[in-house]
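Researcher: Structure prediction, please.
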Amino acid sequence: MTPKRSQIEMLVVRIQQVFLSGRAVRLTLNQIARRVDASARLCQAVVRLLVDARVLAETPGGAYERFFPQSAVLRPSRASAA
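Model: Predicted structure follows.
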């Protein structure tokens, strides 16, 4: 059975909530599927979209975590340096 758009949207929100619940959440695809009570195949598609959107990041070990961009070195603006 093909999931409806509303079901996919709800799954996106549920997966995001899992990772927003704590800063150091790191889960495998199977753990995500169990937490949101969805098939691993459907979760894989949604997680891939969230990785592409830079909401989640895949670790070298194959787990997923929240995406935190590397903070750029902050340089004082010319106005504040004067």
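Model: The radius of gyration is 17 Å.
Researcher: Thanks, that helps.
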